[in-house]
């Protein structure tokens, strides 16, 4: 498994991680920051200048998963990873990728009163000879605190929190080790196998009385999505959509769904692409919506949205698909798309 130690920059995660490695049998220290260091050495300066933070690089997020999987396969046991991760969509992408590789994650938040955090950051590097570098690091940690405060609600809901305000790194590591042994911090994310070839996926659009469309928020990948999933071998696509809606939301739909769009998604490494179908699932009444059931390991929320609101939630490729599906629904037709664009229309 991986013990992911999260917290504010300068919170002492690395010191705790090194202590924790001594307390957990067969554990190995894994620093995802080294992946960032490697990318800074490899990527063109122009690309690095495009992003405010190395975590915004898709390559970093992918390589963290692949490096962790390779290291885990090499040494086994437990990897202890101290890294600040404040964007929930990045958590979904990384933890979902690890779950897909059958590597369980224990998410632990090392939290402290902000006054104490500021004092700890101020003491960083007091015995270092490079005052300039340490001053810049301390300034960066302090500038990061507002973002940490904004992320605290979802972090505390997702991770097992250890209050480190009055603890030394060793005492904190002992608390974390005790919690890990008791099963705390487990992230029960759906384990969707990584595709090895093109796939066929079926999504279902459900509408409320105001003609808004239902979107769901997966725990295992970034961004919002339509209810649905990958069609299993030998399974009719419409029936797959009905099955996925039942599994994800607890709704029983008729199998006679009308196809709105079929979209060919081109391969975009590391993804393989494939066919994406959207079906019209019809009206979901307010009363029925109250009975929606969300599997915690797969979905964390749902909401009805207008087309304009969906544009702020869906990745561009899914938004293009939705726009054309809504047009097809209005016209009572089915549209054939390639990469989100109608063919022969």
Uncertain segments of ≥5 residues (pLDDT<50)? none
CATH superfamily placement of the largest domain = P-loop containing nucleotide triphosphate hydrolases
CATH third-tier fold name of the largest domain: Rossmann fold
Radius of gyration: 23 Å
In short:
The protein is α/β, with parallel strands linked by helices and 345 residues long. Helix content is 43%, strand content 21%.
Structure description:
The chain has two domains: 2-181, Rossmann fold, CATH 3.40.50; 199-342, Nucleoside Triphosphate Pyrophosphohydrolase, CATH 3.90.79. A hairpin with an 8-residue loop joins β9 and β10. The chain is built from twelve helices and 13 strands. The chain is 43% helix and 21% strand. The chain is elongated. α4 packs parallel to α5. It has a six-stranded mixed β-sheet, with helices on both faces. The chain has a five-stranded parallel β-sheet with strand order 2-3-1-4-5, with helices on both faces. A two-stranded antiparallel ribbon has the order 7-11. It has 345 residues and is of the alpha/beta class. It has helices spanning 13-23, 33-42, 45-49, 58-75, 88-100, 114-123, 131-158, 169-181, 237-249, 286-290, 307-311, 316-331; strands spanning 2-7, 27-29, 78-82, 105-111, 160-163, 199-207, 213-218, 228-230, 258-265, 274-283, 299-305, 335-338, 341-342. The N and C termini lie far apart (50 Å).
């Amino acid at each position: 498994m991986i013990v992911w130690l999260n917290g504010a920059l300068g919170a002492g995660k690395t010191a705790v991680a090194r202590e924790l490695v001594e307390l957990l049998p067969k554990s190995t220290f894994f620093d995802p920051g080294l992946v960032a260091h490697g990318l800074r050495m490899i990527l063109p300066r122009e690309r690095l200048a495009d992003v405010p933070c190395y975590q915004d690089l898709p390559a970093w997020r992918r390589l963290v998963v692949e490096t962790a999987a390779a290291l885990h396969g090499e040494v086994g046991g437990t990897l202890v990873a101290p890294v600040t991760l404040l964007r929930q969509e990045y958590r979904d992408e990384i933890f979902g990728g690890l779950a897909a590789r059958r590597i369980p994650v224990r998410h632990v938040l090392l939290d402290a009163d902000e006054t104490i955090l500021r004092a700890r950051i101020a003491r960083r590097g007091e015995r270092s000879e490079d005052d300039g570098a340490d001053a810049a690091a301390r300034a960066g940690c302090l500038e990061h605190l507002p973002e940490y405060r904004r992320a605290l609600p979802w972090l505390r809901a997702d991770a097992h929190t250890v209050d480190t305000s009055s603890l030394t790194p060793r005492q904190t590591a002992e608390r974390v080790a005790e919690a890990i042994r008791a099963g705390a911090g487990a992230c029960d994310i759906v384990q969707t196998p990584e595709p090895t070839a093109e796939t066929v996926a079926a999504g279902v659009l459900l509408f409320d009385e105001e003609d808004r469309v239902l979107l769901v928020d997966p725990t295992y990948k970034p961004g919002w999505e339509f209810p649905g999933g990958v069609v299993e071998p030998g399974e009719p696509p419409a029936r797959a959509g009905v099955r996925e809606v039942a599994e994800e939301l607890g709704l029983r739909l008729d199998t006679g769904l009308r196809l709105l769009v079929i979209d060919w998604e081109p391969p975009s490494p590391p993804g393989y692409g494939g066919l994406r179908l959207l079906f019209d699932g019809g009206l979901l009444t307010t009363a029925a919506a109250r009975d929606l059931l969300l599997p915690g390991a797969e979905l964390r929320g749902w909401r009805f949205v207008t087309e304009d609101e969906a544009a702020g939630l869906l990745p561009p490729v899914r938004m293009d698909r939705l726009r054309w599906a809504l047009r097809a629904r209005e016209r009572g037709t089915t549209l054939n798309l390639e990469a989100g664009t109608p063919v022969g229309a």
